[in-house]
Structure formats: C-alpha cells, structure tokens
Amino acid sequence: MGQSDPRLYVVATPIGNLRDVSLRALEVLGSADVVAAEDTRVTQKLLQHHGIRAKMIPVHEHNERRGAERIVALLREGKTIALVTDAGTPGISDPGAPVVAAVRAAGFPVTPIPGANAAVTALSAAGRAADRFLFCGFLPPRPAARRKELERMKGLPFLLVFYEAPHRVQETLADLRDVLGSEREITIAREITKQFESFHTCALGDAEQWVRADANRGKGEFVLLVEGALTAPDAGEASAEHALRVLLGELPLRQAVALAAAVSGASRNRLYQLALELKAGAQ
Question: Residue 275 — φ and ψ, nearest 5°?
Fold first, then answer.
C-alpha cells in the first residue's frame, strides 16, 4: 500500500461486537494512508480497540460529493484510502456508493474487504428459507410513502428484508400488518451481535404487541424478515391442500392447519389462509 498502489478499499466493519472484524480489514485499516469514515468518533473506538492509529477524514451523507472529490485528489497523490461506515458494509443502506462511483470514474481501482452485514447476519440465524429474498433496506419515514412502497411489494413471492430504527419500528410493524396481511410470518431481529441480541418469530398481527409488551424490545437497531406473498400451488402444495381438506372435516381449524403443515412441510401461515378460504367457501 501507499505511493505505489493508490486505490480505494471498501472495508466492512462490525455491526456491534468490535471483535467481528476480519484480519484483512484490520491490516488495511492499519496500513492505509487515510481512513474515510462516516463518523470519525465511531471509527476511532474501533481503531483504538484494536490498537490502530490512522489519519481520518469524515465522509458522510451530507458531504459525500466533496468527500469523493477529496478522496480522488488523495488517490492522485498516490495515497491509499480505506472507506468505512459506522457499522456494516459501505453502500448497503449506508453512505459509500457515490464515493465508489467517483473513484471508478477517475480510473482508480476499488477493492472490497468483506465482512459484517446486518441483513445477511439476521438471515443466517433466523431459520428462514433464504434462497430467494429481496433486500428492501429502510422504508420511507412518512406513513403515506411507506404504505405506497409496501403496496408495490405486496404481491412479491420473496422473503422481504427491511431495516428499521427504534423510533419508527412500531408504526412500521403496523403498516406491514395492514398492507401485507396479519397472517404473514415475521422474524424480528434486534441488536444483532450486541449484548441484548434477540430473535422473535410470530405472525405480523402479533408483532406490534410483542414489541409493546416490554419497553426494552423497542430499543436498538432492527432487521425485519417478512414472509413473501403466496404463490400458485405446485404438486407439493396440492398434496398439502388435500391433507388440509381431510383434516378440516375432523378437527378444529388451527389443529388441522398445524397437522397439515407438519405432514406436508408447507407453510403454516399459507395453510391457515387456505383453511379460512375453505371454511368461508363451505358456508
């Protein structure tokens, strides 16, 4: 690194636990000529924890254009730059993309240093099928815009992954319930990698009440994993529907749904919705 190799390193940093940083990231942060940080005070804590001294400059959402120009100028001087945000991977619901675009446009190489990402970390511990998911990041803060955005996603068959801040999480859960339906499953991941980390899975209709039941549950940073929309049934689902029809003739609705899901492996929420439709059609 240094005069012979001017380049921008995009460095992922811990999302909570300061030990969740790769050896390569520490090497880059320790040897870069300049660390461009979203908040130099936050990054300073990480560097001090690992015994690293570095020259830092602030590059955040309010000065990204000027920050990008300054970084390109430093690269032209032969410097190496490490770009970090307060937590996680730059450019993923965080500042960084305009800087990377400017550096590439100026003809300098950009090297990613992979590491923590809240969405992927939440998916890994939620126990949800994640072969197809849609990362949605933060929804709009204004209620009308938020609901409009959710309406656009309502019919998508993918697991939906949202970020949310503590001061908006309850109203966002209410909008998710109202727009997407109360029976969809949600996993609420909170304070991932931190002392009060928690994961809770429930129906969207119960999510807001779960958060309200304990004041601590409304604190911290959230990742919300919401079940996708129902899709057209395949052969396996046809078999699950058949089992459900038989069981509904002998058992209460919830018990029939639970047994049909256990036997077929189909989504309990999906079978519950189908059971309601079958019951309504029989009346």
Answer: -60, -40
Looking up tokens 């656009």, which residue turns up? 152
Instruction: Please give the Cα distance from 70 to 75 (Å, whole number).
Output: 9
Say how far apart CA 47 and CA 264 lie, in whole Å.
51
Question: Would you state the torsion angle of the CA atoms of residues 195, 201, 207, 209, taken in this order, to the nearest 10 degrees?
Answer: -70
What is the sign of the dihedral through the CA atoms of 83, 87, 90 and 94? negative
User: pLDDT tens across 23-81, in order?
Assistant: 999 999 999 999 999 999 999 999 999 999 999 999 998 998 999 999 999 999 999 99
0.90 cut: is pTM over it?
Answer: no
**Residue 241 Cα distances to 27, 229, 254, angstroms:** 56, 17, 14
DSSP 216: G
- For 84, the 3-state DSSP assignment is strand
C-beta separation of 155 from 229 below 8 A: yes
Work out the angle at residue 170's Cα, subtended by the Cα atoms of residues 168 and 172, and round it to the nearest 5 degrees.
Answer: 65
Q: What kind and span of H or E run contains 185?
A: strand 185-190
Q: Which residues contact 53 (CB under 8 A, 6 or more apart)?
A: 47
Dihedral pair phi/psi, residue 52, rounded to 5°: -110, 135
